[in-house]
Amino acid sequence: MAATDQPPSKTLTALTSAALALPGMPQTGVAATPEERDWEVGYFYYEEGDDRMTVESLNQSLVVPLGDRLDIRLNGVRDTISGASPIYNVPQIRCEDGRVFDAPVRTVSGASGSTSTGGPPPERPPLNDGSCGISSVRQVMLESTFEDIRTAGDFKLSYYRDDTTLSFGAGLSREKDYDSDFFSLDLRQEMNQKLTTLAVGYSLASDTFTPLNKTNFSGDKETHQLLVGVTQVLSKNDFIQANLTYGDSSGYLTDPYKNVYLLSTNEAIEESRPEARRQWNLLTRYVHYFPGLKSALHLDYRYSRDDWGISAHTVETFWIQSLGQGWQLVPRLRYYSQGQADFYQSYFEDLPADGYYSSDYRLAGFGALSGALKLTKQITDQVRLDAGVEFYDRQSHYALNDHDDSSYADYGFTIYSLSVDFAF
Amino acid sequence: MQLHRVAFRAMGSPCELQLYSDDPRRAEAVCRRAAEDVLRLERRYSRYLDDSLTAAINRVAAQGGSLEVDAETAALLDYAETCYRESDGLFDITSGALRQVWRFDSGRLPKQAEIDRLLARIGWDKVRWRRPRLGFRVPGMALDFGGIGKEYAADRAAAICLEAGIRHGLINLGGDVRVIGPLPDGSPWQVGMQDPQRPDRLLGGLLLSGGALASSGDYARCLEIDGRRYGHILSPKTGWPVEGLAAVSVLADACLVAGSACTIAMLKGREGIPWLEGLGLSHLWIDAAGNRGGAGGLAGLTGATRAT
């Protein structure tokens, strides 16, 4: 709007920035109003190290305003998953005379649906005479490559009135062996001149697992989740957020494709988990906008714990840097550390008396570092392109908490993503 | 696209909203929301309404007390403070008390003694402003948001329209105009500029596809005694109407900025002309002798006056 090409005067800059600090000025505080029409189509490719597993995903998200007070969001996703996954861990036995026993296991029930029983019990040296001992642990992968397709869709209807937004959502997800139906209710209330936002939410998911390796069996699982959150604007360049989530799952929580190895009988048997899990999750977030640099810093810390004995910390930071001419770069770093579940061991001597045991590497103690980079280009007012890459490195020794070594399960993955967003 | 237009009175002025939308119900609802917000700000900041926030602040100011204010008021006070600083103390929201003696409908001039008595209670430097606490060092002070309230209301109305997806619209609150995008066919809005010396005529039409236009001048309200015009823009330093410029118009992104630039230029008198040049915004000025000047698109209106 400047009449001349001269740089804006100090006075004009002072007046303009003071004007923009007022609530409700176009560049500041957003009223609770329906979203603009928007369609985003994305593709991502996930690849674990050692060609273990790949996931290809196509997703779309469409937002349509319905009049003045309503909008609807429709999401759809189709994932194609293929590869191998670890099922249990066997100890490797080394003897002083140089012999190595990598015990074959007598019985394995596989996710392919077949149950195979090996031949005679394998030979194994006695472990208690001092000359032979367990030296390391090795993962046994499900050898048959599996492939699954997941199709999921959901909608969310939001109603906006003054400073209040009420949303109702529902959806479903379908796989060969896993069905999930869910719904959610959310309420957001802006108050205190939109400087404070309170959010409460509830969701219910009802899942049915029909494992392919079991006949005439299905397990049901129900998950209730409650969320309470508050966002507080501190100044025109800062806000903080805190969300507390409580989740209560009950039913069939076991992964029937995961086994544990029993040293006493040299067998792999299906794992067994408790029938209930209560999880608490706290997210705290600080966001600072640097007007001079046209950039924003996000700092997140998450703490979670559950009654399976797993507690976890996540620290994440990302930087949104505007590069001008519609380009934007977002580097992101994340550190995650979790302790192990009470009933986790990499393998078991004998079955624990309480009847719960798992060697699933996801319940082990470990840490993970990940880094990501996203590049965005606003091509026109209507079209935006995003391209991203993310690297993930899981290492047993990255964990903060005390835990059994699980370095045999260390792995990494890479995700490449591409998406197009149309505002129309 | 259909045009939805509402006219109403607020802040002592005729107001008009013109919004285009595919959905007439939507345009109507947005119009209603924007107009409600203008009226909300009037109820909140009018110094004429006993139950307004300004009246409540001024009751405290009269005692020389202090109070805590909400975030919106705090931001307005910050803005007013910025204006005070950038105008070297000429733009002063405590100068409203002068209206107690300058009655533009009275036909008489105030006595110097009356003015001097008021000047002792005027000055932003007599206000202690530490967000969120506002204190008055001298009893008998008063604040007046009149110089920024209407422009802020126009910007907020525009923000409400933008957030509701309106991309073609015009907001006119008593001559403070905020344009939201061009007309639906892409052509600019034509905004008529009143001739400050002959209010029944237009200086010309201005083509706007965005931004805000505000004007200030003594044609709006003035006192004429013995052929001499006394404008309604009063200097907080002398207590008398400022002289030098008869009218100023400024184009800016925000109506608030355009409006305070006009007021500051008027307060500066002829000094306002180089100050406007330095600001770098498109503007137009007319001095008491009828000379005109300006820069940018508005300068194009310095030529002949056209009949309506």
Give a quick rundown of the structure.
The complex is a heterodimer of chains A (424) and B (308). In chain A, 3% of the residues lie in helices and 60% in strands.
Greatest chain-chain interface? A-B, 34 and 49 residues
Give the distance, in angstroms, between the N- and C-terminal Cα atoms of chain A. 26 Å
**How much beta of chain B, percentage-wise?**
25-35%
CATH topology of the largest domain in chain B: T-fold
Based on DSSP secondary structure assignment, what is the total number of beta strands of chain A? 23
Element string of chain A (H = helix, E = strand):
HEEEEEEEEEEEEEEEEEEEEEEE
For the record, what is the CATH homologous superfamily label of the largest domain in chain B? ApbE-like domains
- Rough shape of chain A? elongated
CATH overall fold name of chain A:
Porin
Structural class of chain A: mainly beta
User: Residue-averaged pLDDT of chain A, rounded?
Assistant: 85
Which structural class should the secondary elements of chain B be placed in? alpha+beta
**How much β-strand is present in the residues of chain A?**
over 45%
Number of helices of chain A: 1
List the quaternary state of the chains.
heterodimer
In the predicted model, the low-confidence regions of chain A spanning at least 5 consecutive residues are 1-5, 27-31, 109-120
Number of helices of chain B: 7
Q: Which tags fit this structure?
A:
heterodimer, A: 424 residues, mainly beta, Porin, 16-stranded antiparallel β-barrel, three-stranded antiparallel sheet, disordered N terminus, B: 308 residues, alpha+beta, T-fold, 3 domains, eight-stranded antiparallel sheet, 7 helices, 15 strands, 28% strand, metal ion binding (chain B)
Write the layout of secondary structure elements.
The complex is a heterodimer of chains A (424) and B (308).
Chain A: H1 10-20, E1 38-48, E2 53-66, E3 70-83, E4 86-95, E5 100-102, E6 107-109, E7 115-117, E8 132-141, E9 146-161, E10 164-174, E11 178-191, E12 196-209, E13 219-235, E14 238-251, E15 259-262, E16 267-270, E17 276-290, E18 295-306, E19 311-324, E20 327-338, E21 366-378, E22 383-395, E23 411-423
Chain B: E1 2-10, E2 13-21, H1 24-45, H2 53-63, E3 66-68, H3 71-86, H4 112-119, E4 127-130, E5 133-136, H5 146-163, E6 168-173, E7 176-180, E8 189-194, E9 202-208, E10 211-217, E11 222-225, E12 228-231, E13 245-252, H6 255-268, H7 272-279, E14 283-287, E15 292-295
Antiparallel strand pairs in B: 1-2, 2-6, 3-5, 4-5, 6-7, 7-10, 8-9, 10-13, 11-12, 13-14, 14-15
Helix pairs in contact in B: 1-5, 5-6, 6-7
